[in-house]
């Protein structure tokens, strides 16, 4: 189980797909889920919330969350991602608060949410003013119908949770097991055993996995040089970045970028 740090450069993204197990991850976007078939479990922090058809969940920016699927049959949902910087009226709350219970059950859900989801599914692009206005409607509903509390009131002393959060916030800097153990006030040996037992890998591989997830997004969505990307993601050199990247993806970062560019050109030609 490796935490994923997702970096989305699109203003608003919408995916209608089969619900699957998704390991703990976090990102800067607001994430919303609306179940259209079957069910899904939304895990936020250490709690697991059950969602059925017609029910809604939301995760505020930089909050660790995951998904589990226990129901048999078809399980599908609409997953909506929105960059918080486009909703300045809610920015302070999005950064410092979170819902006490991050879901709205079917008997309590506003008709506005179902309407907005259906309208967004009809859109071909999600970066325009109309798409942002639809998301604004959902946020207005969330802040009206949900109990919003300070993030400080939902802190945890769980070592796994704190470790995941710490690495996600610091992976772009120089980070060592010793420094992390010092900052979390635990023994480095306890921390090392936790990574081996919980994530089935050592500390270095775990951190590099998160750096690679971040790097992959930048390679796809920018023209930044490979060297700058390597350093920005926390690797000590481009050589190390190339080696670790190839071990995971079976190609170099440059080959990966070229392949993505070719696919994008092909898609534009088809359209």
What topology emerges from the helices and strands here?
Elements: E1 4-6, E2 12-18, E3 22-27, E4 30-37, E5 39-44, E6 47-52, E7 56-59, E8 65-68, E9 76-82, H1 91-96, E10 97-99, E11 103-104, H2 111-121, H3 129-145, E12 148-150, H4 159-170, H5 177-184, H6 188-199, H7 203-221, H8 226-232, H9 238-249, H10 253-270
Parallel strand pairs: 1-3
Antiparallel strand pairs: 2-9, 3-8, 4-7, 4-9, 5-6, 5-8, 7-11, 10-12
Helix pairs in contact: 2-3, 8-9
Would you write up a description of this structure?
The protein has 271 residues and is α+β, with helices and mostly antiparallel strands. The protein has two domains: 4-152, Sandwich (Jelly Rolls), CATH 2.60.120; 159-263, Orthogonal Bundle (Arc Repressor Mutant, subunit A), CATH 1.10.10. Helices cover 45% and strands 22% of the residues. It has helices at 91-96, 111-121, 129-145, 159-170, 177-184, 188-199, 203-221, 226-232, 238-249, 253-270; strands at residues 4-6, 12-18, 22-27, 30-37, 39-44, 47-52, 56-59, 65-68, 76-82, 97-99, 103-104, 148-150. A hairpin with a 2-residue loop joins strand 5 and strand 6. The longest helix has 19 residues, at 203-221. The model has no long low-confidence stretch (mean pLDDT 86).
């Amino acid at each position: 189980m490796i935490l994923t740090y997702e970096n989305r450069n699109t203003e608003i993204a919408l995916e209608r797909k089969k619900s699957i197990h998704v390991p703990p991850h976090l990102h800067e976007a607001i994430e919303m889920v609306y179940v259209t078939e079957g069910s899904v479990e939304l895990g936020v922090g250490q709690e697991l919330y059950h969602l059925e058809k017609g029910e809604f969940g939301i995760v505020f920016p930089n909050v660790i969350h995951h998904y589990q699927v226990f129901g048999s049959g078809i399980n599908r949902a609409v997953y909506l991602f929105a960059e918080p910087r486009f909703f300045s009226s809610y920015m302070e709350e999005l950064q410092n608060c979170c819902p006490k219970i991050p879901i709205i059950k079917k008997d309590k859900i506003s008709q506005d949410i179902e309407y907005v989801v259906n309208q967004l599914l009809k859109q071909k692009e999600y970066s325009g003013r109309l798409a942002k206005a639809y998301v604004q409607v959902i946020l207005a509903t969330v802040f009206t119908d949900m109990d919003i509390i300070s993030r400080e009131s939902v802190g945890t002393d769980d070592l796994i949770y704190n470790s995941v959060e710490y690495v996600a916030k610091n992976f772009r800097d120089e980070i060592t097991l010793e420094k992390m153990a010092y900052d979390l006030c635990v023994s480095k040996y306890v921390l090392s055993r936790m990574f081996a037992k919980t994530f089935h890998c050592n500390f270095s591989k775990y951190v590099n996995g998160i750096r690679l997830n971040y790097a992959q997004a930048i390679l796809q969505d920018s023209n930044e040089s490979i060297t700058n990307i390597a350093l920005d993601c926390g690797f000590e050199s481009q050589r190390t970045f190339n080696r670790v990247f190839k071990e995971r993806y079976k190609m170099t970062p440059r080959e990966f970028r070229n392949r993505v560019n070719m696919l994008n050109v092909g898609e534009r030609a088809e359209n």
